[in-house]
Amino acid sequence: MHLISQDSVLRVENLKKVFRSGESDLVLFENLSFEVRKGEMLAIVGESGSGKSTLLHILGALERPSFGDVYCAHLQLNSLADDAAADFRNREIGFVWQFHYLLPEFTALENVAMPLLVRQQPWPEIQGDAIHWLREVGLEPRGHHRSGELSGGEQQRVALARALITKPKILLADEPTGDLDGRTAEAVFALIARLHRDYQLTSLIATHNFAFARRCHRVLRLHQGHVEEVMPESLPV
């Protein structure tokens, strides 16, 4: 068993990701090593194509690295079989993407409840949890609306409630405000920050928005295949 420091939730060791491109290999990143401590809000910044999304996929056991290890508590994520990885994602990770990925045929309430429905928990048991999380994101009155009847900001707030209904150890957010206008993006980021604080989450947020990254506890910058930690206040205004 690999030991990590007592307050560490996630540990990355010598991570490398290589993609085959025609006859050659494209090294997206290599030698990435860092820890994420419990309760941290960590921003990951970098240019488009630098590997932010791929890194989040690996940290959430959606994708395997070419080399290196990811540890969450006592689990070595890249050694998990597919079924075990799926179970880990459902129980320990909350995902929010740039696109909300709500199921259009279901209501907002049903979309929020979906991770628990996947566990085959009975509806009467989980309806209250779904209502609670809709209330937390300010959308309880909209619970009976389908996703197509909601604004972009409302759709992303439903996606956030869906991510948190399982009470995950880690929230992974990939450009969660990237498709939103400035005012709506600010409201969604403020909501993420409040829920992070209120529910003592550990959050990793990939973002192009330096104003949001500066409000995180730590910032990791992906650049030319490597990672460096930078002071949040050093990011451009």
Write a structural description.
The N and C termini lie far apart (about 45 Å). Helix content is about 35%, strand content about 30%. Helix 3 (about 110-120) runs parallel beside helix 5 (about 150-165) and helix 5 packs parallel to helix 6. It is of the alpha/beta class and about 240 residues long. A 6-stranded mixed sheet has the order 6-7-8-3-9-10. Strands 2-1-4-5 form a 4-stranded antiparallel sheet, covered by helices on one side.
Give a summary of the structure in a few sentences:
The chain is of the alpha/beta class and 237 residues long. It is 33% helix and 28% strand.
- Biggest sheet layout: 6 strands, mixed
CATH architecture: 3-Layer(aba) Sandwich
Structure class: alpha/beta
Number of helices: 7
CATH homologous superfamily?
P-loop containing nucleotide triphosphate hydrolases
Uncertain stretches of 5 or more adjacent residues:
none
> Which H/E pattern describes the elements?
EEEHEEHEHHHEHEHEE
Looking at the structure, the CATH topology is Rossmann fold
Residue fraction in strands: 25-35%
The rounded Rg comes to 18 Å
Rounded mean pLDDT is: 89
CATH class category = Alpha Beta
* Number of E strands: 10
Shape: globular
What is the helical fraction, as a range of percent? 25-40%
- How many independent structural domains? 1
Distance between the termini: 43 Å
Strand order of the largest sheet: 6-7-8-3-9-10
Topology overview:
Elements: E1 8-21, E2 24-37, E3 41-45, H1 52-59, E4 67-72, E5 75-76, H2 82-92, E6 93-96, H3 108-118, H4 123-136, H5 152-164, E7 170-174, H6 182-198, E8 202-206, H7 210-213, E9 218-223, E10 226-230
Parallel strand pairs: 3-8, 3-9, 6-7, 7-8
Antiparallel strand pairs: 1-2, 1-4, 4-5, 9-10
Helix pairs in contact: 3-4, 3-5, 4-5, 5-6
